[in-house]
Prior knowledge:
It is a single chain. Residues 1-24 and 145-155 have low confidence and may be disordered. The strands form 3 sheets. A 5-stranded antiparallel sheet has the order 4-8-7-6-5, with no helix packed on it. The N and C termini lie far apart (84 Å). It has 2 domains: 30-154, Winged helix-like DNA-binding domain superfamily/Winged helix DNA-binding domain (Arc Repressor Mutant, subunit A), CATH 1.10.10; 173-263, no CATH class. It is α+β, with helices and mostly antiparallel strands. It is built from 8 helices and 12 strands.
Amino acid sequence: MAKRREAALNGPHASSRRLAGPSARLDETAVAPATLERAAAIFRALGDAPRLRLLLVLLGGEHSVSELVGASQEKFSTVSQRLRVLRSEKLLARRRERSHMYYSLADSHVADLVRNAVAHAAEADRRVEAGPRVERNNARKGGRTMAKKQQAKKQQGHKGHDHKHGPGCGHTTVRHDSHVDYLHDGHLHHVEDDGSVTQHTLEVGGKNPASCTPKHACGGHPKEHKHGPGCGHEAVPHGEHVDYLVERHLHHPHGDHCDDHGPIQQG
């Protein structure tokens, strides 16, 4: 009898029995509704494979946005949007160093959540491999559908915009990827096919880096000129910072000099 009891306590289902025991059971009546809502929001933020991949990278330590862009092989604006979602649920901490932003996991709870979720998924995958093939196919289709939905949400709408952008509308045009956007009060506006307006951001990389260039000599304004609101140059959203348009180049104020963030093509 004693041996059978010991086997039951230490058998393959022992961990689930211990979790269900009175000492480990969470008293749901002691959890405030607001706390449950916050926990649900955290799981919603984690419920996206590309965002989870960013957290996996950050398990290795602090990374700059540019490093995360390189690791994910995606556009700067896409990575920035995912970081904003994770930070809004307090899953990330960040700090600024000059013109660069660095991200890290908020605390050990987040690290444990990520590790446990991936470990549990890997165990579930092994169980699925032993089951019918159709079950695996359905899971893959579901993952692709979720990824497409998340991709469709990557751009931010702009409400309350009555102005009609177009040729001769009075706003500076900027060639952005394969289309034309319009600079409007520090925003980069794009007119969709249905007439709605979305806010775009120039990605960091290629011809438009976010690097420090202390030796940059500009003939477009006096050396003592200070960029900022009302300085006479149009503001351009570039990654997670603001640049200023000077003779078709992006200038970024940085201490006692301007960084050259590369040329732009006006439409």
